[in-house]
Prior knowledge:
Helix content is 41%, strand content 19%. The protein is α/β, with parallel strands linked by helices. It folds into 2 domains: 1-100 and 265-359, Isopropylmalate Dehydrogenase (3-Layer(aba) Sandwich); 116-255, Isopropylmalate Dehydrogenase (3-Layer(aba) Sandwich). It has a 10-stranded mixed sheet, with helices on both faces. A two-stranded antiparallel ribbon has the order 6-7. The structure holds 3-isopropylmalic acid and manganese (II) ion. Residues 76-77, 87, 91, 246, 280, 282 line the site of 3-isopropylmalic acid.
Amino acid sequence: MRKIIIKAIPGDGVGIEVLGESLRVLSTLEQCHAGARFEVDTLDWGCGYYLRHGSMMPPDGLEVLKDCDSILLGAIGFPGVPDHVSVGGLLLPIRREFDQYVNIRPVKLLDGLDSPLKLTGGHAIDFVVLRENSEGEYCGRGSIRNEGGPDEAVVQESWFTRTGVSRIIRYAFEYAAAQDLGSVVSATKSNALNYSMVYWDKIFDEIRHEYPQIHARSIYVDALAGFFVLKPHEFEVVVASNLFGDILTDLGSALLGSIGISPSANINPEKRYPSMFEPIHGSAPDIAGTGVANPVGMIWSMAMMLKHLELPEMEQLLMQALGDVLGTRQARTPDLGGTSTTKEVVDEVCTRIEVLARP
Ligand code: IPM
Ligand code: MN
């Protein structure tokens, strides 16, 4: 039987709860479906580790991760460690060093989810944001000039390389073509960002001509945020830079009723390195430790992992179970208006997997 080696990094805050509980989904799946066996190695990296050791992960952390099949991440960041230090010491190095240059973030209103929007005319919300995940505004470069003086200034660089921009835009068109989707929207801001986004648009225009069957449009990101609210049903594939994709996908998750729902897959499409799967939400220190964080984003991210690992039957089994639990509204955490705990929601998903898998 295929053995899948998973490195699990619960991280900080609610990440510890959602990943800790959700791992039971994998054991249930392997008991119910002979597709694969999961060997999970849980690593205690994160802000607690930082306070003990002075770094977010061991110096050979990337080496430890490099040969696994997939990485699962809960969330990173906690008061006591500046967020840019925690994120810059674990999350971003993994995305960057493992060349996980595509961040797939579905925005799909599953049955049983209540959008805060008034959706009329039977319109659905079902699109994906493909976020550039290796460079752009997140390249991490910059400098402080004349520190402490009257002319003090900081420079935060954005790097947009031909390789980096082309590959994410091409991925978006290939994604649309493979799924028979008719349109790709590019999030831009070339009216104000006169180098980076003008360049982004230029490459988008070059590549769109290779896909004449796909309707391609560039929309200013500010207007696009408005359209997400006013006409989300018009979107199929949205391609965005690192920062724009980040902001748009919290909005996307809010359209589904909670930040706790949405999954994400940090993908190295060439599979030269492991990919990483994590909910889009943060560590939520305000509710950390109370046991009521929504595990849906984490569980859905696990389904994306199964898809990436080419275990489609397991993926479908998990998504069916998750959809059924949401659809019947039996177990839901407070962010969705319910009273269930994280554990209770995961219990329901596991039970549903068992029922669905019964011959
Ligand atoms: C996300 C998160 C991260 C990001 C933070 C924690 C740096 O918000 O995965 O969306 O901005 O990428
Ligand atoms: Mn984010």
